[in-house]
Amino acid sequence: MIYNKFSYKKFEEEFLQKIFEFLEKNDVSKFENGRYDIDKDNLFLNIATYNTTTPENRVWEAHKEYIDVHMMIKGKEKMCTAFIENANITEYHEDSDYVEISDIKGDISQIVLNEGEYLVCYPQDVHKTACIVEKEEEVKKAIFKVRV
C-alpha cells in the first residue's frame, strides 16, 4: 500500500510514472464517469462519482489481477484497509477480478483520502471504499487499474 499526495512525483514504481504522465496531459477532473483505456487492459482508468455512506453499507473487496490506484478528485472519503491473510474470502469473480470478502479477522486501518491524495492498493491489500468521514458527501474519484 502507498498513501501520498498528487504533488509528490518521485516514484520507484513504473506504473505510477505512467499514471502521472497521463495526468500531466489530461485533466481527469473534467472526465465523465466511465472507463478510459490507457494501455488496453494493462492500464485503464475508471472515473466514478458517488455519495459516501456508513461502513456498514459498504463491502470489503480485493483483486488478484490488478493494482488499484485511488485518486481523489473532489471530496473526501474514509477507506478501511486490511491484509488479505486476515480476510474471510467467500468467492472470486474472475470476470471482474473481484474477491468477495465476508469479514476481516484482525487489525483494520483507516485512511481519509482527501482531494489531491492517492492510495495504491496491491492485491494483498483488502479495502472498503466510500465511507463517510464527517457526513455524507458526493465525491469524484479516479481509479486507475494496473495489471499485475
UniProtKB/TrEMBL annotation:
InterPro entries: NanQ/TabA/YiaL, NanQ/TabA/YiaL_sf. Pfam families: DUF386. One of its GO terms (cellular component) is cytosol. It comes from the Bacteria. PANTHER family: EVOLVED BETA-GALACTOSIDASE SUBUNIT BETA, PROTEIN YIAL. This is YhcH/YjgK/YiaL family protein. It comes from Peptoanaerobacter stomatis.
